[in-house]
Specification:
With 186 residues, the chain is an alpha/beta fold. It has a domain of 128 residues: Nucleotidyltransferase, domain 5, CATH 3.30.420. It is built from six helices and eight strands.
Amino acid sequence: MLSSAKMGGSWPNTPEKPGPMGCSGCWVARSGTWNGSRDDLRAYILERLGDPLAVLVIDETSFRKRGKKSAGVKQQYCGTTGRVENCQVGVFLSYVSSKGHTLIDRELYVPKEWIDDPGRCREVGIAEETRFRTKCELAQHMVERLWNAQIPFAWVVADSRVWRQSGFTHLAPSASVFLRAGGGLR
């Protein structure tokens, strides 16, 4: 991702760091879990992009789906198409510094209907301990994770809905927040 190495899929595939068929599974194979991979990647990013003046950017993205078996899929507003349709929604956190930018964390929004149906969750691999969280709560959780890991940042940017509903003000009193009235990032 931050390398000049030949890419195979979306991850570097080099003799020094071979991945199974050059796919993202190489990160899972090295750390054993997706969350472990996230933590490994976070350390890698911090080493190359870390900056006390960095900006965290919160955004959600929807992914259209056809069936009912993908984790968290339901009829909901799909920002990709601008209408209500079958989709998954992910909440993403980007890290931006003068040295570069990259995604640093992610959470899948799991609707309450899914949480209330443990069999359906189990079928697609959603952990039993997963509890319902709004998209704003997911965003706050990711920022808290970075804050607790002592990842340096000075600003958090998000649309005004995220800020109003999340309660970020207790988290980083030294960090500033830039929001555009009416929603959306500027």
